[in-house]
Write a structure and sequence with these properties.
The protein is of the alpha/beta class. The chain folds into three domains: 87 residues, Up-down Bundle (Four Helix Bundle (Hemerythrin (Met), subunit A)), CATH 1.20.120.140; 185 residues, P-loop containing nucleotide triphosphate hydrolases (Rossmann fold, 3-Layer(aba) Sandwich), CATH 3.40.50.300; 129 residues, Signal recognition particle, SRP54 subunit, M-domain (434 Repressor (Amino-terminal Domain), Orthogonal Bundle). The chain has an eight-stranded mixed β-sheet with strand order 3-2-4-1-5-6-7-8, sandwiched between helices. Helix 9 links the parallel strand 5 and strand 6. Helix 4 crosses helix 12, helix 9 runs parallel beside helix 10 and helix 19 packs across helix 20. The longest helix has 20 residues. The chain starts with a helix and ends with a helix. The structure holds guanosine-5'-diphosphate (GDP). Guanosine-5'-diphosphate (GDP) binds next to helix 5.
């Protein structure tokens, strides 16, 4: 899914690799590439343009964290904007009927888009995950084969199908079906309708009338994602007439380029609710914009890495620390602070494993999650005065600290030595990111 787009985006970010900071020039260059990648993935031109404009603004306005590389930051911004483009949060499906009546879900879409298949998938899902008792209704009165197809689907998922092969009045069929549902205690009615190969007035009229007559809780528009921009145009035409509630994108298992998924939401301002990822009845997924953005970028791990760093890294604190280091005033409180900051970022091995390429290399390496435990115990056994003035920690104080922390004198001596080295090294390279140094020192 979206492989080409993923590759192209990844290449765009390479422009920023090795760049020390985000500038007008390198951002413009990167985004030119990103826009081309989106257009090649059949994303609507206007959508692609406004997307890159937003990303540019965000990238230039962002306070660049010293803990994060420009290329990583860009991945994160693009990721968040992709998710936003597709709707931000996952949309809900209204499956609770009104006062004693079943919930009604009306399917719309062109012939071959996957309406019948999706009706079956949805029925199965509601039955299994939501413990509902759905009824499928065949309202495609033009093709006898359509009724048969829905019956096969119903049988496969163990859901009853209501049909009236000799009746051509879809409103009547739907109303009868709703009565049937009430009498048989079916709490969700899924109405499969007729599609045409292209949008035509008669079909639109019919489904519009049907919608008015049954007043559905959800009107869903089903569309084949392989059709790219056509999918978006069809969505717009259906939405103008039906004002539907959500989109179902089918055939995402094919080599679809992604244009439909990325443009539909902006063009019709309706969320994508589910995706179809195969012909089998299990191949249905709730659409999560965030997860889709992860998949498109194939770099979800970098995104979490940047998020955690953004949460934990305090630019102000970093500056204060840098001053202290320059004056050789770095003490054990600062040392401890740095350790806490690193620890808050999570299990270090997990964190490192998030960096693409690193994961595999460190898989077998033994990084102890409790690497800091001994160090923390020793520092905790120092008095506040000792922590602020490491130079006063003489041999007798060291013996007391060892006893207090349950460690050996050797351990305390080693830490003191490491601390001194760290201090010297920090003074030498004050320009370097301080948390990175604490990391080095603790290693
Ligand atoms: P309808 O005319 O809108 O009812 O469309 P159908 O449900 O008959 O689907 C048309 C074709 O697309 C059938 O061959 C389905 O098996 C296939 N199809 C539907 N959904 C998916 C999907 O998510 N992935 C794939 N690969 N095929 C699908």
């Amino acid at each position: 899914m979206f492989e080409n787009l993923s590759d192209r985006l990844e290449r765009s970010f390479k422009i920023l690799k090795g760049e020390g900071k985000i500038t007008e020039i390198n951002v413009a260059e990167t985004l030119k590439d990103v826009r081309r990648a989106l257009l090649d993935a059949d994303v609507n031109y206007k959508v692609a343009k406004s997307f890159t404009d937003t990303v540019k603004q965000k990238a230039l306005g962002m306070n660049v964290l010293t803990a994060v590389k420009p290329s990583q930051l860009m991945v994160k911004i693009v990721h968040d904007e992709l998710a936003e483009l597709m709707g931000g949060k996952a949309a809900e499906l209204k499956i609770e009927g009104r006062a004693g009546a079943p919930a009604i879900i009306l399917m719309s879409g062109l012939q071959g888009s996957g309406k019948t298949t999706f009706s079956g998938k949805l029925a199965k899902m509601l039955k299994e995950r939501n413990h509902k008792k759905p009824l499928l209704v065949a309202c495609d009165v033009y093709r006898p084969a359509a009724i048969e197809q829905l019956k096969v689907v119903g049988e496969t998922v163990g859901v009853p199908v209501y049909s009236e092969p000799d009746n051509k009045n879809v409103v009547e069929i739907a109303n009868h079906a709703i009565q049937e549902a009430k009498s048989k205690a079916n709490d969700v009615v899924i109405i499969d309708t007729a599609g045409r190969l292209a949008v035509d007035e008669e079909m639109m009229q019919e489904i519009e009338t049907l919608k008015k007559a049954v007043n559905p809780n959800e009107t869903l528009f089903v569309v084949d994602s392989m059709t790219g921009q056509d999918a978006v145009n069809t969505a717009k035409e259906f939405n103008d007439r039906l004002d539907f509630d959500g989109v179902i994108l089918t055939k995402l298992d094919g080599d679809t380029r992604g244009g439909a998924a990325l443009s539909i939401r902006t063009v019709v301002t309706k969320p994508i609710k589910f995706v179809g990822t195969g012909e089998k009845m299990e191949a249905i997924d709730v659409f999560y914009p965030e997860r889709m953005a992860d998949r498109i970028l194939g770099m979800g791990d970098i995104v979490s890495l940047v998020e955690r760093a953004q949460q934990q890294f305090d630019e102000e604190e970093a500056k204060k620390l840098e001053k202290k280091i320059r004056k050789n005033k770095f003490d054990f409180d600062d040392f401890m602070g740095q350790i806490q900051q690193i620890k808050k970022m999570g299990n270090i091995k997990d964190l490192a494993a998030m960096i693409p390429g690193v994961g595999k290399q460190i898989k077998d390496l033994d990084i102890d999650d409790n690497a800091f435990k001994g160090i923390e115990a020793i520092i905790n056994s120092m008095t506040p005065k000792e922590r602020a003035n490491p130079d006063i920690i003489n041999p007798s104080r060291r013996r007391r600290i060892a006893a207090g922390s349950g460690t050996k004198l050797d351990d305390v001596n080693r830490l003191m030595k490491q601390f001194e080295q760290t201090r010297k090294m920090m003074k030498m390279v004050t320009g370097l990111n301080s948390s990175k140094m604490a990391q080095m020192a603790a290693a």
